[in-house]
């Protein structure tokens, strides 16, 4: 049994490892006094209390207490019968269901929005969906835009019901203190203000650093010699790398646009645009890795993993500096793009020469055998 993995085996192992790491970061349960982030499932248990929830997930369930607001984008958002939200609920989801208590307003957009019989909303309901059903108590007004709206027999609404719907069904027992008014101006404006789902800038920086580190780990683990050559090229001749990077950044989009103007070239242009986007991301990581390698060389240190960390973390910090940070990131990107293009060209030429050399050897051997 071999003691070392083949080159292909190393690459597969690296990809599998990083895939597991990525999956582990998107699956979790809310913990701590408040939740802010992304996960597969976010659950507030029946005996738990949180200050607030601001998250993106496949499923968000509130069985316990949230003293503040809930701002969520998910496949399903559910405040159960035992759930209580002291503030507002702002949700964009395939299904939004309220069966518990909400002290403030509910603003929701989705495929289906249901206010169950046991639900009590202390403020207003602002809903935009394909189907809206109200069976519980709403102390304020209702503003809804939907294909179909149902006011069930247990519905109790303290204010007006303003709606824009193709169909509205109101049970005789449904209690509406105010008026039921058709308002065609509601249209697509019903539902939450999606600006509420904007995460703090520092969270975006951390996420960007994390995914760049993961990509860097893949590149260094799967293509160690190629990565080293890219970094060496930047260190040995940064002017050439930067110049080629600038030329590539200008020329490739021009070529893609020209291809887009021809019927035959449209598929090539679309595939090329995707490939260039991926290459640009790889180039950005390689450029920062190369700068990190150069910085370590000044201290007579050589460690590719440390160089990756120094480069990416350093540029993440520099990125916070107005103007200068963006300029330095652009320089690193151009260095990485140029070095990547030159190294790929060198590798392609090397393989071509090896292939021609192999064919020539075969011909020579064949000639020698005939002569013999």
UniProtKB/TrEMBL annotation:
Domain of life, per lineage: Archaea
Pfam families membership: DUF8173
Regions that span the bilayer: 202-223, 244-268, 274-298, 305-324
Keyword set, alphabetical order: Membrane, Transmembrane, Transmembrane helix
Domain DUF8173: 202-344
Record has Membrane as a keyword: yes
Keyword field contains Transmembrane: yes
Stretch list, region Disordered: 351-372
UniProt cross-references to InterPro entries, sorted A to Z: BacA/B (IPR007607), DUF8173 (IPR058486)
Name of the protein described by the UniProt record: DUF8173 domain-containing protein
Annotated source species: Haloarcula mannanilytica
């Amino acid at each position: 049994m071999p003691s070392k993995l083949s080159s292909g085996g190393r690459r597969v192992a690296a990809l599998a490892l990083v895939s597991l790491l990525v999956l582990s970061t998107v699956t979790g349960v809310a913990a701590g006094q408040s939740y802010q982030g992304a996960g597969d499932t976010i659950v507030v248990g029946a005996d738990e209390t949180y200050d607030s929830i601001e998250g993106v997930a496949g499923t968000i369930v509130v069985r316990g207490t949230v003293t503040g607001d809930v701002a969520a984008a998910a496949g399903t958002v559910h405040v159960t019968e035992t759930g209580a939200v002291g503030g507002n609920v702002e949700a964009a989801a395939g299904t939004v269901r309220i069966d518990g208590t909400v002290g403030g307003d509910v603003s929701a957009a989705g495929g289906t929005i249901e206010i169950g019989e046991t639900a009590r909303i202390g403020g207003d309901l602002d809903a935009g969906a394909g189907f809206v059903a109200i069976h519980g108590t709403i102390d304020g007004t209702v503003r809804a835009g939907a294909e179909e709206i149902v006011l069930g027999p247990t519905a109790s609404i303290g204010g007006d019901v303003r709606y824009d719907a193709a169909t509205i069904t109101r049970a005789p027992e449904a209690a509406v203190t105010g008026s039921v008014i058709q308002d065609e101006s509601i249209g697509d404006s019903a539902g939450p203000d999606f600006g509420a789902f904007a995460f703090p800038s520092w969270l975006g920086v951390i996420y960007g650093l994390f995914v760049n580190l993961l990509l860097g780990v893949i590149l260094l683990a799967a293509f160690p010699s190629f990565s080293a050559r890219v970094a060496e090229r930047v260190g040995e001749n940064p002017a050439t790398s930067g110049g080629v990077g600038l030329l590539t950044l200008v020329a490739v989009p021009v070529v893609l646009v020209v291809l887009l103007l021809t019927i035959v070239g449209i598929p090539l242009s679309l595939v090329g645009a995707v490939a260039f986007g991926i290459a640009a991301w790889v180039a950005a990581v390689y450029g920062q890795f190369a700068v990190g390698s150069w910085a370590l060389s000044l201290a007579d240190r050589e460690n590719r993993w440390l160089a990756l960390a120094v480069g990416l973390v350093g540029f993440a910090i520099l990125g916070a500096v107005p103007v200068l940070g963006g300029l330095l990131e652009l320089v690193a990107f151009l260095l990485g793009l140029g070095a990547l293009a030159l190294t790929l060209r060198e590798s392609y030429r090397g393989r071509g020469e090896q292939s021609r050399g192999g064919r020539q050897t075969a011909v020579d051997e064949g000639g020698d055998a005939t002569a013999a």
